[in-house]
Amino acid sequence: MSGNLGGITGLTGLRVGGGGKVPSGVPLYGILNSVVTVVATTVTATKSVDTTAAYAGLAVGDAVVAIPLTASGLSAGVTLDAWVSASEVVTIRYSNVSTANAAQIATAMNVIAYKLVG
């Protein structure tokens, strides 16, 4: 499948229901993708640091996944969460679950969003 899906263009390779019929009442999602580079930061032991990125077309309630694109990924003890915190704004939160400070390097993130269609 390719083309326009609920205002989302350039979508290719979407499969719904494993090739069978889609049951009624099952929401369909469009998939958006963007690469965001998050600046270097130090995350204090047992604390979190938030950063935001503009992401056109998103609304609160859309699902977001952020995945580091580098082999180094995240520093030891650092976890990552992402969500749509306001219209067209994604918040990425680094949380340090260790008892030592963690220096997180600047990291390119593949941010994937799922938008409810129709």
Q: What distinguishing features does this structure have?
A:
mainly beta, about 120 residues, 3-stranded antiparallel β-sheet
Name the structural class: mainly beta
For the termini, the CA-CA separation is: 17 Å
* Shape verdict: elongated
- Number of helices, counting only DSSP H or I runs of 4 residues or more: 0
Q: Average pLDDT across residues?
A: 77
Oligomer: single chain
Q: What is the percent of helical residues?
A: under 10%
Total of domains? 1
What share of the residues does DSSP label as strand, in percent? over 45%
- The count of β-strands is 10
Radius of gyration (Å): 17 Å
- Element string (H = helix, E = strand): EEEEEEEEEE
| Unreliable runs | 1-20
Strands of the largest sheet, in order across it?
3-10-6
Question: What's the main sheet like?
Answer: 3 strands, antiparallel
